[in-house]
Structures are given as C-alpha cells and as structure tokens.
C-alpha cells in the first residue's frame, strides 16, 4: 500500500466520517463490527469517535457556529463529518492527541473529492478550536435541541430537564432479565459486576465479553432488556393460563416476559424480518408463542384476550442514551403525526380485549402526545374502559416511576431500585381495564 493511502489512523477516521455522514443525513448509527475492522482496537476507536461526536452533537453545533462564520459548506462531501470528528477529539478526547485530531481530519477532507477544496478552511477552523480549547462554554442544555430542552423544561422543570440532558453523555449499562427461578452466579466470569434491580432484572455495569459470550447465553437462561422496558409486562400480574396478545412485539423482550409468566401468548409484528428475529430470540430461550405477521389495525377474527399489550411505534425519544441521534432526527411536528397512528392502533387493540381484561399501552417516548395525552383521549372515546392506576406493589415496591395519576413515567435520570446507577431508558405505560 502506498504512503499516500497508508497514513496511520487515516482509515479509521475516514470510515468514522463516512458512518457519521450517514447519521447526519437521517440514518440511525450502526456501530462498526468485525466485518468493518478486524482489529478490535481500530473498531473500538472508530465507534468511540462517532459516538462522542453524536453525544456532543449539540455542543459541537455551538462551536461550529463560532469557527465557521459562513456556516458549514453545502455539498462538501466529508467536510462536515470530518470536522465534527476533529472537534470531538480536540475537546472531548484529548488523550488521543491534538496533532492526530488536526492532521487526520484535514487529511480525510483533502482526500475526499467533494471536500478537498475546503481543506484550508477546516485546518483554520480546527486550529481555532484548539487555541480556545479551555474556554468554550459547553452547557449541558446544549446537548439536546433548543426546542426539545424547552419542552422538557415546561413538562418536567428545569432541574430535571438539565439532568435529562446530561444523561446524553452516559454510556448505558446492560440490563438482563433472567428466567423465573434462575439466578446469575455473581462469582462467575462475566457476571462479576452484576447487581439486582427488580425481581428477575439485573444490571451488568461492566463487561469485557460480547453479549453472546456471557455465561448461560447459549442455554437461553436470560435475555437483554432495559429495566424500563420490563415495566409494562409487569403490570399484567399473574398470567398462568391467560390469553395474552402482544402487539408490535419484536424484538420480543415483553413476549418473553409473558411466556415466562405462563401466558398463552400471541405475538404480532408487521415486518417479516422483525418477526424472524422475534422467533430466533424465542427459540434460544425455549419459549413458545403463536406468531402473526399482520397489521395491528387489521386483526379482525383474532379473538379476545385477557391481556392486550400495545408497544406502539413512537418517536423513541426515551432511547437517546443509546441512540443520541434520535433527538436531532426528530421535529416537533413528528409527535402529533405519530399520535394519530397510535390512536388508530389503540382503538384496534381495544377490540381484542375481553370483558374485565386489561389493555396496556406503552411507548419509549418522553413526549405527552405519545403518552398521557394519548390515554386521556382514548378514555374519552371509549367509555367501556377505565384507568387502572399503577401501584407500587405492581412494581415490587418501586414507586419512583409512578406519577400522581397512576401512569408509569420513567425518566432517564430516575432514581433506581437497590441503589443502582446508570439511568434507564425513558418510557411511558398505562394500564386500562375493560368494564363493559
């Protein structure tokens, strides 16, 4: 390989810039895997560069506004992702070295056909960032879009909104759900740092192995599921012998919970690939459920169920600790648009609930349009349902995510059970009962 293409570290930076460019145009971030980099150190570095740029996206916006007076050049190839990675490294990854940040960012731009003419501009901007590295006013509220922070402040108060914004910087730990009666062996390699959250839910704060290499994975003794995502299924109570309908079920964490509790589960998913993934997960766990590839709004003839759970498609703003780009891909108008589909799905789900049965609605959204407002409007339309307020006993004594009306509103900065730290995904859940 020629010296021109073999500059140390350039391949990693170029790959990171290309992946970041996809995210900037609206795609989700897909972490680099072994197929991208055989060398685990290069793979880890590429992922670290992109995730740092994404978590610090809003703060980097403020810096770019100062050092690029005319804004980011349009139709400039890898210019924007490369300079963002350079700023991320200069300000937030100083241990990687200023020279590498400057040189490799500019080289990435020079070697891109559409960006090369802006190499001098990038060099000047990055040197400006370097000179002022200690003086940039990096505020927590700038980690999220201004309009989003204003919404959070109005809804949850400024103190809470600032805590939520700060959570953007946290790499979330791994939460596992163990089958009923199975306990992790904490002295076993891989589970040395595991701690209990709620019954069957554990948090693995540190790990060196991949998920598939952790103990008892192949034996199907546990599955990955964030704590907040486990809460809706817990609201169903004892399920032995009861008919359960799990709507929008993939990847299958809640389906697995229902199976583990003895429910007779029918799981519905509209996308063939997601349904296949659901089946693979259930097979590993040795759980059985009837799977349907279908549109939730077109389930005529599906029968009635004792418990119906709808995990509705939503803006997913509650998942920003894992996917920080989601906050920048959303627009305020998106919430109202998604709320219309959610209402349609709720109406369809209601038809499948038997008399005295439960309808559980949930979303991984922090927005009231997709949570509290949605349920209040549903109850106005459906006099045959009433709210069944969630009690602390429903969550094994944990009251922190339960609001005054009896909804579950889990915020990322929620105080966790058993003194655990690391936050949780944002989630909303409501439990309704059919009375007529």
UniProtKB/TrEMBL annotation:
Q: Where is the SAM-dependent MTase RsmB/NOP-type domain?
A: 150-435
Q: Which UniProt keywords apply?
A: Coiled coil, Methyltransferase, RNA-binding, S-adenosyl-L-methionine, Transferase
Keyword S-adenosyl-L-methionine: yes or no?
yes
Gene3D superfamilies according to UniProt = NusB-like, Vaccinia Virus protein VP39
Q: Which residues form the active site?
A: 364 (nucleophile)
Q: Which InterPro entries match?
A: MeTrfase_RsmB-F_NOP2_cat (IPR049560), MeTrfase_RsmB-F_NOP2_dom (IPR001678), NusB-like_sf (IPR035926), NusB_RsmB_TIM44 (IPR006027), RCMT (IPR023267), SAM-dependent_MTases_sf (IPR029063)
- Name any one Pfam family assigned in the record: NusB
Which stretches are annotated as coiled coil? 268-295
UniProt: S-adenosyl-L-methionine binding residues: 248-254, 269, 295, 311
Q: Which domain of life is it from?
A: Bacteria
Family statement drawn from the similarity comment of this UniProt entry:
Belongs to the class I-like SAM-binding methyltransferase superfamily. RsmB/NOP family.
- What is the protein's name according to its record? MFS transporter
């Amino acid at each position: 390989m020629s010296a021109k293409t073999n500059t140390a570290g350039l391949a990693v930076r170029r790959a990171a810039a290309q992946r970041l460019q996809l995210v900037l145009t609206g795609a989700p971030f897909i972490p680099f895997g072994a197929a991208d980099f055989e060398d685990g150190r290069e793979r880890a570095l590429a992922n670290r560069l992109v995730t740092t740029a994404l978590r610090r996206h809003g703060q980097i916006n403020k810096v770019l506004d100062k050092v690029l007076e005319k804004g980011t050049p349009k139709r400039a190839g890898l210019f924007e992702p490369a300079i963002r990675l350079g700023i991320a490294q200069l300000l937030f990854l100083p241990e990687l070295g200023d020279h590498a940040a400057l040189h490799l960012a500019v080289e990435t731009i020079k070697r891109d056909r559409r960006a090369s003419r802006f190499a001098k501009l990038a060099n000047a901007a990055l040197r400006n960032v370097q000179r002022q590295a200690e003086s940039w006013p990096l505020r927590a509220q700038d980690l999220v879009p201004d309009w989003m922070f204003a919404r959070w402040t109005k809804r949850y108060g400024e103190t809470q909104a600032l805590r939520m914004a700060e959570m953007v910087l946290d790499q979330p730990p791994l939460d596992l759900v163990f089958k009923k009666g199975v306990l992790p062996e904490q002295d076993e390699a891989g589970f040395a740092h595991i701690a209990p959250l709620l019954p069957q839910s554990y948090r693995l704060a540190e790990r060196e192995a991949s998920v598939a290499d952790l103990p008892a994975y192949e034996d199907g003794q546990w599955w990955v599921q964030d704590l907040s995502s486990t809460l809706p299924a817990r609201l169903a109570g004892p399920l032995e012998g009861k008919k359960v309908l799990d709507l929008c079920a993939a990847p299958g964490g809640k389906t697995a919970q229902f199976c583990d509790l003895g429910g007779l589960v029918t799981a519905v998913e509209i996308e063939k690939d997601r349904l296949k993934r659901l089946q693979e997960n259930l097979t590993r766990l040795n759980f059985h459920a009837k799977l349907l590839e279908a549109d939730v709004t077109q389930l005529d003839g599906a029968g009635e169920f004792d418990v119906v759970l709808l995990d509705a498609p939503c803006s997913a703003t509650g998942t920003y600790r894992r996917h920080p780009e989601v906050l920048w891909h959303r627009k305020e108008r998106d919430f109202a648009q998604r709320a219309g589909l959610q209402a349609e799905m709720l109406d369809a789900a209601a038809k499948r609930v038997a008399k005295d049965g439960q309808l559980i609605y949930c979303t991984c959204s922090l927005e009231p349009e997709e949570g509290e407002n949605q349920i209040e409007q549903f109850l106005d339309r459906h006099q045959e349902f009433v709210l069944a307020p969630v009690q602390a006993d429903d969550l094994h004594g944990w009251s922190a995510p339960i609001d005054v009306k009896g909804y579950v509103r889990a915020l990322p900065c929620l105080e966790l059970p058993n003194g655990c730290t690391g936050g949780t995904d944002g989630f909303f859940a409501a439990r309704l009962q059919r009375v007529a």
